[in-house]
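ok trying this again, last paste got cut off
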Amino acid sequence: MYDILFEGARIIDGQGGLPYVANVATLGSVIALVGREHVRARQHVDASHMVLTPGFIDIHAHSEFYAMRESGMPMRTAQGITSDISGNCGIGVYPLRHGRRLLEPLCNDVLGRCDSWNWDGFKSFHERLSSSGIGINMGFLQPHSPLRVAAMGADCDRAADDDEIALMCSLLDESLDAGCFGLSTGLYYQPCFSADDRELEALLKVVAGHDRLFCVHMRSEGDGILDALEEVLSLAMRASVRLQISHLKVIGGRNQDKLSRVLAMIHSYRDRGLDVAFDQYPYDYGSTSLFSLLPPWALALSRTELRFALQLEDERRRMRKDMLEPDGWESIWSLVGPDDIRILHMDSRSDLAGVRLSDLPGDPLESLFDILADEPGAAVMCDVTEDVSSLEAIMKDDLMSFSTDALYSSADVHPRSRSASVEMIRRTQDRRLMPLEECIRRMSLANAARLGLTDRGVIREGAAADLVLMDLDRLSGQWDGHANAGIVMVCVNGRIVHEDGVATGARPGTVLLA
């Protein structure tokens, strides 16, 4: 007897072909039947007038500590995400060679907090996750920042020497051997910002040797985006490594006319033989650490040192000058401006949630320095990044696939963390950007293929029973506090994790290994 039978569903199987009506039955963790047969099952689901798709695969997430704090991962399952890839933007928590003291400040604003860091490398990290159970399937990249911290200690905001690069390469090789899907870096953020070509080329040689992905948050997504793009494309071409450009966007009103050149450059490298693609979250506004508005030299300080520096008039003047007239780095303050930056969360100032920086009392930049000087914990912001027309032009490009860039470091989260998949479907269909079946392919099989997952992202017999049942008439971008109304049922490895707006608490996910 089968376990679950979805009867009469409109099947969008993830491959991009036309929908068809069929019954789908699960047995254990796999799809055991796709056809018109009427069979017996322990649970029958009337799926007529609904759409059944593969579970959505998020290729760019930051879910590591969310999975430890809320193992059922309800904000993931409620939007139909059944697998994700974390360890992005160079931000992560393994290897752990110097304890948590050096890495924790680099992670708090993005990953949030974890009470017990009882691992040393990727293998022991994923074993801890597996032992406690997780709500979805999770794969991981080896982030660049922990490699630099492991090899260089606290003195990691500079170019690495030969011995330090060799140690980073050895540690990366261990993580890739243990199942990481590739290397991620965030060249916008310290300490990755300080990595030179010599270091990056050495690391990419290791990645290429394993035929894994190089995932990169570029050094610039605004004024310097063309140079930053050329940097990573040429690095990947020289190393013969597969390149995944993270959350592609063009930041700042003055830079929107650069998008056509950005896309043309990517496609030109693709035509020359580089395996390059990019992902995108479906919003024209982003989210990151509020501290990331400060110059790189300030972010290289420990949090205690930074709070002290923010009390000194000379240091504040230096920060102000660098943020208003950046030289050699990208200032979000200069690109976006205080009118389009909003505080999403501060650990010590809940009264500031939702406040625009331009609405802070007095001079907005001085007020920003004041609140950051008093903040010992996490601070997260939202910022308008691009025009909607640019967002949609990227979305329509053949090389785009789905991601969320979801952060779970605070109770107040960007909508992408809870509703990105729904927004992706809603926007592409309302704006007629692509057929629904193509949208689903980019949210499922396209990312599975990019990661080399042969048994996920598709509805076919023998594939993993990661499934999403949707009522398109009820699908909207609205979040009612715990669910998206159009997501009726979600299965991970054949077990129901979300049903009729309620998380079941099941933890059938597995750690995916490359």
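PB: full thing came through this time. The chain has a mean pLDDT of 94.
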